[in-house]
Amino acid sequence: MAWILIVFLILLGGLIAPFGDLLGTKIGKSRFSILKLRPKKTATIVTIITGGFISSISIGLLLLVSEEFRQRLFVDIPFLQKTLDESKKALVPLQEERKRLEDKINYKEKELNKLKSDVKEFRRGNVVFKRGQTLFIAKITSNPNIKLNLGKIYNSADRYVQKIVIPSKKEIKNILLWRPSDISEIEGITAKGGDWILLIKSATNVLKGDDFVFVYPELLQNKIIVRRGEVITSEIIDKKDLDYKNINTKIKTLLRKTRDEIKLKGSIVNEINTRGDVFKKIRDSLEINKDLKYRFEVVSLKDSKTADPIIVDLNVTRL
Question: In the chain, at which end, N or C, are there fewer CB atoms within 10 A of the end residue's CB?
Fold first, then answer.
């Protein structure tokens, strides 16, 4: 059926086209005019109308004899347009996800490049300071001579780092390299008042023998982290955990939780100091008392600020 229709349309177009051309020629020769147009332009318009007539007959015949064509023209095209619009909407979250994945890949590539750089530095020399490591810690109290005090701190940090990085050099030189904006920021903040802790950190891995060390500051408020007599952490221990091995493990876990707790509060110390042999004290106490449950409490023995050591005692209470 489709082939017959195609052949018919070709023949129909072939028959009507010469007729349109002939009609245009005759109109041109007869000097016929439409809407006061010149005969030549009138003939052109008649030819165009004839071509449009051919197309109209072709589409009309297709609509008349072909159900598939009617379906595709009046049903499929709107359906396809709707499907296309829905596909575009569905594509938006996929594009966003693709961008997130690309950003994640770029971030991982940067991390990988940084790791490669660190490995190269480790291989080519003796690393004395790692990137991000704290090189020097100083307490700062705001006063009228704050700039002079900060200058002394910078010089002390310089001498300390030089002794580690280039110990063979006897002459005193400035080995630390700061961004001027960092120094201005420190001076501006500390001049406003208060107590502060200045951490000077390495911006790169530092090898022994390097001539310069790039650093950046971290300024922390020197505040009270724990007060004397404050219970920092506690835990209840059952009788089944009262053998020596389990007690030692429980105490170490409790002290580790205590360290994590004070860090959350802002302390920069890495260890908890205990008074005396707490392990022996606890074991002796449990040997004397055979109760079912005990409360272990880690208690601060003094007021401690941001950079102060944390000294604790372990109290045991029978429940």
Answer: N
